[in-house]
Amino acid sequence: MHIRKVMVLLLAVLGLIFATWIAAGQQARRVDDLALRNAGRTGEEWLTYGLTPGETRYSPLKQIDTTNVTRLGLAWSYDVGTGGGNQEATPLFWNGTLYGITNWSIVFAVDARTGKERWRWDPEVNQVTVRPKICCGIVNRGLAIYQGKIIAPVIDGRLEALDAETGKPIWEARVAYPQDNYTITMAPRMAKGKVIIGVSGAEFPVRGFFAAYDAHTGQLAWRFYTIPGDPSKPFENPALKKAAETWSGEWWKLGGGGTVWDGMAYDPEADLIYLGTGNGGPWPEQLRQSKGKDNLFVCSILAVKPDNGELKWYYQPVPGDSWDYDSVQGFILADLTINGRQRKVLMQANKDGFYYVLDRLTGAFISAQPFALVTWAKGIDPETGRPIINPEAHYDQNKESIILAPGPGGAHNWSPMSFNPATGLVYIPTSTNSTSTFALDTNFTYKPGERNLGIIRGNRGTGLGVEPPPQPAPTHPSPPAVGPVPPEGQRGMLVAWDPVTQKERWRTPGGGGIGGGTVTSAGNLVFQVIPDGRFVAYNANKGEKLLEIQSGLRGGMGPPITYMLDGQQYVSFLGGLGTLPPPLPNAPPPPGTVPNGPTVPPKLLTFVLDGKAPLPH
Ligand code: CA
Question: What global pTM score does this model have?
Answer without folding.
Answer: 0.94
